[in-house]
């Protein structure tokens, strides 16, 4: 798996973790659940301070073997590929590429893959009720258009 730091500076960091076809190779040692495959958190790499993001690949025929809720964070699940089912407080519905799901901290949630391809998804968690400015309201436009030098080459090679 190709993982390497692309950039690190005062105002940001960038890290390459491999494309979605490589996410099944992620290995995580969950503090309570033990070894997990197909999940990587970005905060340790990017030093995120207001959110946590994970990249997830759930193999065909597999489901997360537990339901869970959160103490204070809401979650947004963004599905990128595969066919899955989401369960929220005992109700289930289908998800596929393009599906987005928001869950309040108290929502008891679960996911399973019902297709023949990996179920690929991102999970973004942030403190519920913490967002004060959304969409473009928080942006500050620069005064000048970007100036680019010659390309430095493709990443991941
Ligand atoms: Zn969660």
Describe the structure.
The protein has 157 residues and is mainly β. It has a domain at 33-128: Jelly Rolls, CATH 2.60.120. Helices cover 3% and strands 43% of the residues. The model has no long low-confidence stretch (mean pLDDT 93).
CATH architecture of the domain at 33-128: Sandwich
Low-confidence stretches: none
Separation of the first and last Cα atoms = 11 Å
Write down the CATH topology of the domain at 33-128: Jelly Rolls
Name the beta content range: 35-45%
- Our count of helices gives 1
Radius of gyration: 18 Å
Q: Can you say what the CATH homologous superfamily of the domain at 33-128 is?
A: Jelly Rolls
* Approximate helicity band: under 10%
Average residue pLDDT: 93
Strand order of the largest sheet: 5-6-12-7-10
Largest sheet: 5 strands, antiparallel
Present as ligands are: zinc ion
Summing up helix and strand content along with how strands pair, one would put the structural category as mainly beta
Question: What is the H-and-E element order?
Answer: EEEEEHEEEEEEE
How many E-type strands? Answer: 12
**Broad CATH class of the domain at 33-128:** Mainly Beta
Q: Which overall shape is indicated by the principal axes computed on the Cα atoms?
A: globular
Task: Chart the SSEs and their pairings.
Elements: E1 4-9, E2 12-16, E3 27-30, E4 34-37, E5 39-41, H1 43-46, E6 52-58, E7 73-81, E8 83-88, E9 91-96, E10 100-103, E11 109-113, E12 119-127
Antiparallel strand pairs: 1-2, 3-4, 5-6, 6-12, 7-10, 7-12, 8-9, 8-11
Zinc ion binds at residues 68, 70, 75.
